[in-house]
Amino acid sequence: MPTAVTVAVVFPVCAKLRVLRTGSCIHGYVVKSGLEFDTLCGNALISMYSKCGGSTAMDDALKAFSTICSKDVVSWNSIIAGYSENGLFEEALKLFGQMISEECLPNYSTLANILPFCSLVDYGRYYGKEIHGFVVRHGFETDISVSNALMAHYSKVCEMGAVESIFRSLTIGDIVTWNTVIAGYVMNGYASRALKLFQGLLFTGLAPDSVSLISLLTASAQLGNVRVGMRVHGYILRHPELIQETSLMNALVSFYSQCDRFDAAFRAFITNQNKDLISWNAILSACANSEQHIDMFVRLLQEMSHDVTQWDFVTILNVIRVSTFYGIKMVREAHGYAVRVGYTSETSVANAIMDAYAKCGYPHDAETLFRTLAGRNTITDNTMISCYLKNNYVEHAEMTFNKMAVKDETSWNLMIRLYAQNDMCDQAFSMFHQLQSEGLNPDPISITNILLVCIHLSSVQLVKQCHGYMLRASLEDIHLEGSLLDAYSKCGNITNAYNLFQVSLHKDLVIFTAMIGAYAMHGMAEKAVEVFSKMLTLDIKPDHVVMTALLSACSHAGLVDAGVKIFRSIREIYGVEPTEVNCACMVDLLARGGRLQDAYNFAVDMSPNVVNANAWGSLLGACKVHGEVKIGRLAADRLFSMEAEDIGNYVIMSNIYAADDKWDGVEHVRKLMNSKDMKKPAGCSWIEVEKTRHLFIANDVQHQDRSSIYDVLRSLYQQIRGTQAQAQSISYKL
């Protein structure tokens, strides 16, 4: 007859094979033979139900636990582990409390099991501190596994001070100890500290494992530190056993992707010999980050179907992101696929579909999906507001915002951004103050958004107030630093912008781009090129934004040859393909320098996809300055087809004809304008003097100082034009 030991051996086999029916049959035998009261047999039975039956079988596990006459610590550990493994964390914590009340002393295994999920329940921070107190009172702090579990818990609840305290108190630590603290720093945004601690790990003589390197790669990606990531890659290649670690190779792909090194990411993906679904998702995400790799995305997706049988929601998210590049039809197909496989119930997938509709200019489709979602939450509401933001639907956004049951910081930031980009300055500031009255503290995104309002008002005083708040609140964010630098520059204070650049501790591409752009805006091209050269010495790869800033600087300073050289070097040496904005800057550079034919040839030779109306508009404006009718007419023809309703293009072309006394051309343009019922609106501008804004409208007769203002304008105009005879021709211009 089978004994309790025999049964205790059989139950783990049932759990491993997941044959619940067989396990239940053996349970019947156990009851009939009276073995259910045996501690050894009962413990095995609890474990079998926990691992084999899922959360639905935990009632049977609890019954088996209740029938054990003499429960030992293993009995308690088994039932607690069963509930935690099946996601029933509250019940597991209650059993832990019951265990202590029944005077069964937990061991290190109990504590190591209970701590990992404390952060997942309400009041988890409180439970963690209570367990920490229990650990200290009973001397468990000397057990390395318990200390590691405590540090992991505190990392998850953002208490790195407690983590550091425990870490310093340890006389000895294993690789798990170091990995836990390094991962904690990365998880809480302290990437620099993570890198420094990793250096400390190397001095201990402990060899970094795949977990250590994954944290190091994540920290490097957060800092944009390509050099460290490449060293990790080299270390992996020198240790072939690490190449077999799929999770590490996946992290390497993600690192290169986040650092905009697609070629390196793809090579790491190819090197991975044990690709799983996460591997494919990582490289697909890398492709989805850039429009130039969309065709590669499609090819890899087809290859993936031979290697992976089923997509997960991350794959769906990537497909939805890419579908926006192909237009609304593809977005709707991606939406349909998500519906068929049942992923629209995933909030992240539904949000991505809504966002895709908004990017394609179909906010009403996004709104339809939004209205039909059953499990709407704050994130969903924020996504809908973001959709309205992309399409400047202010009233719709306000209605959704006002109906939200719970508003988080993102909700307020989105509304501030919406008002800022629609020049609704008073509403933006009002929303900013309401955010604080709700007990929330402005974060870097809040300040970045309100800086847009400061720029719109050209108020350096408001920028200084934002800067002061950042210092008082210790807001350290590299993108916010870049926005602040940009705001100082656009409000006319290049000195403060440069001082901010000088004191920045982490100069990355964002900071360098902002400083180059600042010098460009102020016509200090030599300084812009100097900063660019310094950036290259730090091995920071330029992107199309840097190219735009440099070309703009050279254009305003008349450094045509230098600009052409920079354009070619960034394109040929660093492999940065010019965007529409880059091409427009290049045309402007050549045109401003009087090389109108070169500008026209450049625009014609480039792909039509990257030469937009801004490029042709720059050329047309330069033709007006240089009195070039022929090329001006060619540029105008392009613009009339691209922007048929833009009155400015017609006005400029008419002025070019008038300056050359080609009145038939003027008449032709006027007829075109009349056929489209076009009327030139009055120009408007303002300036801030001693904290007071002064508004000016063309032909304004209402301003109190209008007489003296017009006297000065007439004097300035005559100086600019040079002669009274030239000034008289203005009567022929629109």
From TrEMBL:
<feature type="repeat" description="PPR">
    <location>
        <begin position="174"/>
        <end position="208"/>
    </location>
</feature>
<dbReference type="InterPro" id="IPR002885">
    <property type="entry name" value="PPR_rpt"/>
</dbReference>
<dbReference type="Pfam" id="PF20431">
    <property type="entry name" value="E_motif"/>
</dbReference>
<feature type="repeat" description="PPR">
    <location>
        <begin position="72"/>
        <end position="106"/>
    </location>
</feature>
<keyword id="KW-0677">Repeat</keyword>
<dbReference type="Pfam" id="PF13041">
    <property type="entry name" value="PPR_2"/>
</dbReference>
<dbReference type="InterPro" id="IPR011990">
    <property type="entry name" value="TPR-like_helical_dom_sf"/>
</dbReference>
<dbReference type="InterPro" id="IPR046848">
    <property type="entry name" value="E_motif"/>
</dbReference>
<dbReference type="InterPro" id="IPR046960">
    <property type="entry name" value="PPR_At4g14850-like_plant"/>
</dbReference>
<feature type="repeat" description="PPR">
    <location>
        <begin position="508"/>
        <end position="542"/>
    </location>
</feature>
<dbReference type="GO" id="GO:0003723">
    <property type="term" value="F:RNA binding"/>
</dbReference>
<dbReference type="Pfam" id="PF01535">
    <property type="entry name" value="PPR"/>
</dbReference>
<dbReference type="GO" id="GO:0009451">
    <property type="term" value="P:RNA modification"/>
</dbReference>
<keyword id="KW-0809">Transit peptide</keyword>
<feature type="repeat" description="PPR">
    <location>
        <begin position="408"/>
        <end position="442"/>
    </location>
</feature>
<protein>
    <recommendedName>
        <fullName>Pentatricopeptide repeat-containing protein</fullName>
    </recommendedName>
</protein>
